[in-house]
Amino acid sequence: LNNKVLNLKDKISGNEVDLSLCNLTEVPVRELALFPKVTVVDLSCNNITSLPPEFCNLTHLVKVDLSKNQLTGLPDDLGNLVNLQHLDLYNNKLTNLPVSFSQLRSLKWLDLKDNPLELGLAKAAGDCLDEKQCKQCATKVLQHMRAIQEEVDHAREKRLLREKELERKREAKQREREAREREARKREKAEEKEKRRKEYNAQKAALAAQEQQKKKSEEKKKKNGQAAGDKKVAVESKPKPRRSVIGLIFKLLLLLLVGLAGVAAVCHLTDLQKEAFCLPINAAVDDGLSWAKEQQIVLRQLVHTNTKDIRGN
Description:
By secondary structure, the protein is mainly alpha-helical. The protein has a domain at about 10-150: Leucine-rich repeat, LRR (right-handed beta-alpha superhelix) (Alpha-Beta Horseshoe), CATH 3.80.10. The chain is built from five helices and six strands, in the order E-E-H-E-E-E-E-H-H-H-H. Strands 1-2-3-4-5-6 form a six-stranded mixed beta sheet. It starts with 11 loop residues before the first strand and ends with a helix.
């Protein structure tokens, strides 16, 4: 900072500080901030090319003269100077103003003459040839900048809406992707479960088949055992060949003859032959012997006949 203005107190008079014609290239913001009662600052006729962002913190300023400098632009937060009523920017190199300029609601006087302003701003600023025109300049430039502010706000709102819509679409895509992933995981789990179910059913069917085979084998063994048992029983219970009727009759006759012979022998050979009970026996024996002889003849004939039939066959 130029040594000529190091002692800022020497430049202060009441609520004003005169820093004009000091060959300044920058604004002593830090020093000005130490004197909040100074509301009027004259920085005209210097070589200032820009204002630092900290200049916008000097919200106590009411009047600022920056005419006849080399300013090419103003800080973006200039609108923070809410108490600023008078601003002289005559004969600088400004082409436009920051959008926040629209927030200088206390501004009543503005001079933008001899600046290479863009067409729309130059038209709003007018000529600023007298006090009335400078007041009109403040009013019209504020209106112009508010319109720009609205356009900027609208553009920002559209940008925000667009960003929000893009974010919504991204979130929707993310949800769709997550839903697809969930569905894929669900499908994989279902397929895995179905696979396990099929394996379980296959194992169950294999066990059932083994059990059925075992059962059939046991039944087969049982049937074979029963068949063998039935065969054995059949063999054991096979009816013995029927004895010949003739043989049975013959044996009966023999027994009868033996019995009769015994009784006859007793009655004939013992002392009992004279007994009364032997008499009919002896008579019966005699008759029996006669009948036996007759039956013997018949039997012989039958045997002889059967023998011929067998030989003939």
